[in-house]
Write a structure and sequence with these properties.
With about 240 residues, the protein is mainly alpha-helical. Helix content is about 65%, strand content about 0%. It has 11 helices and no strands. The longest helix has 28 residues. The protein starts with 10 loop residues before the first helix and ends with a helix. The C terminus is likely disordered.
């Protein structure tokens, strides 16, 4: 199993990690078929032929299990962004790759991604009205992933690529929202990139790259355009 949960050092730790991974993999399968409402410790026990008490040795509650699935997506995203960014040199390359990596990582693990955004508190939920400090937020993996976007906007403003009048946080939130929407479309409609109108031979990768180009143009400083948006036309040649 391809896992984001690294094994510990001792044989006993590795055995424990293997069981934990199998529980998480089963949780993903149940979540994919039945959604959050269908995921319970008892349902999970039936899925993998464990007793509920055995699962409780690894996860104290359904909520704890869901938090692990959520955290796993952002952990994987951070690893992927760090990996690709280290291999790139120019700001333009790193900024575009930051956007495309988010979308591709979501598509690679759609169930982790769905879990990552499940159980969002309603506006009238008392927990939603409790302010969360920026410092506390960026200590979480979700916060660190968001801060990558904020840092990207600020770097682009500092080097003259992006519009200096934009709020870095609001701009980052907009980039995240747009990329989240595309990720969901590609998860639910895998052939979206090649559908009519336009269609043709446009690949998913080409459309995601085009999306990143549009994002970069939207953030560009007045009078400055990013690289030509040629990927879509080339892919249809």
């Amino acid at each position: 199993m391809d896992t984001d949960y690294a094994p510990e050092g001792t044989p006993a730790d590795r055995r424990r990690q293997k069981v934990r991974d199998s529980i998480l993999a089963a949780a993903e399968r149940v979540f994919a078929r039945e959604g959050e409402s269908g995921l319970s410790i008892r349902r999970l026990a039936d899925e993998i032929d464990y007793s509920p008490s055995a699962i409780y040795k690894y996860f104290g509650s359904k909520e704890e299990l869901l938090e692990e699935l959520k955290d796993a997506f952002f952990k994987r995203l951070l690893i992927q962004v760090d990996r690709v960014s280290a291999a790139l040199t120019t700001f333009d390359e790193r900024a575009r790759t930051c956007v495309t990596t988010y979308v591709e990582t979501a598509i690679e693990r759609p169930h982790h991604y769905a879990a990552a955004f499940s159980s969002v508190a309603a506006e009238d939920d008392p927990a939603e009205r409790v302010p969360v400090s920026w410092e506390d937020f960026i200590q979480s993996r979700k916060g660190r992933a968001f801060k990558i976007l904020v840092d990207m906007v600020e770097e682009g403003q500092a080097n003259g690529t992006f519009d200096a009048s934009l709020s870095p946080v609001v701009a980052a939130k907009s980039v995240w929202a747009a990329s989240h929407g595309l990720a969901l479309l590609l998860i639910h409609i895998p052939k979206f990139a090649g559908m009519q109108p336009c269609g043709g031979n446009l690949s998913r990768e080409a459309f995601v790259a085009f999306h990143a180009d549009i994002i970069m143009r939207g953030l560009s400083a007045p009078g400055r355009l990013s690289a030509p948006l040629e990927r879509m036309e080339q892919s249809n040649d």
